[in-house]
Amino acid sequence: MNNFATIITMQRGDMKFAYVQNDNVNYLELFDHFIEDEAHRQLLDPSDKPERFTYCINQNDTKYIFKIDGGVEHRLERQLIAKITGDFYFNLIYKLAKMSQDNCDIAYELYLVAYDQKTKRHYMIFNFIEGRSLTHDDMYTYREQIKHCIETLHRYDLVSNDIHGGNFILTPEGKIKVIDLTNSGFIWLTKANDAIELRDRFNIKIKVPLLAMAFKTFAHSFKRLSRKLRGKKD
């Protein structure tokens, strides 16, 4: 049983870890097993970014998602924001743990985060969610559940920042869960991206700070105008 109230942090060589305490599963050993045993890696849909990989692993008849993110942010403004807000994935494990403590079952669970300070790679272990991605039509059919998911994320200072059917899972029980979250950058501002995408693409309205909406609405409009002047499509 996972104890999301207890997250263990440790340093091992160049690797920094944070993982959830579990009475039955040692996530640190699971990480080591994955790294050592390449034969049992099942690559899922490849990312559009070559430095990112997502695998499905099966340990004692339990499926897990193992993600590797080797991306290095080269944009100065993003580096500065990261310095202010902290490591994206290490923040994420604590926020998702708080959701699990509150029995808030609208997203995945994150069991382990590791960061290789030498290679600049992050490693994560998530739970595997059975189900299928939503189609475009599903986004309208399940609009109330989707609205509930995003509003709940925002209460925990998490956002999607990329709302489309592929980032939602419909479970066999008919429950909607949101995946591929972010908590980096200035969350109060990024929440407006979710609100604008929900409103403009799926006619779903949620409340976010008015100043954030005004700023992001202007930014989106300026971006569309800039693309149009350059002859590019939205």
Name the features.
single chain, 234 residues, alpha+beta, seven-stranded antiparallel β-sheet, three-stranded antiparallel β-sheet, 7 helices, 10 strands, 38% helix
Please give a structural write-up:
The structure is a single chain. By secondary structure, the chain is α+β, with helices and mostly antiparallel strands. Helix content is 38%, strand content 25%. It is built from seven helices and ten strands. It has helices spanning 27-36, 76-85, 88-101, 136-141, 143-155, 187-202, 210-229, and strands at residues 2-12, 15-22, 42-43, 52-59, 62-69, 110-116, 121-127, 132-133, 168-170, 176-178. It has a seven-stranded antiparallel beta sheet with strand order 1-2-6-7-5-4-3, with helices on both faces. A three-stranded antiparallel beta sheet has the order 8-9-10, with helices on one face. Strand 6 and strand 7 form a beta hairpin. It is globular and about 50 Å long.
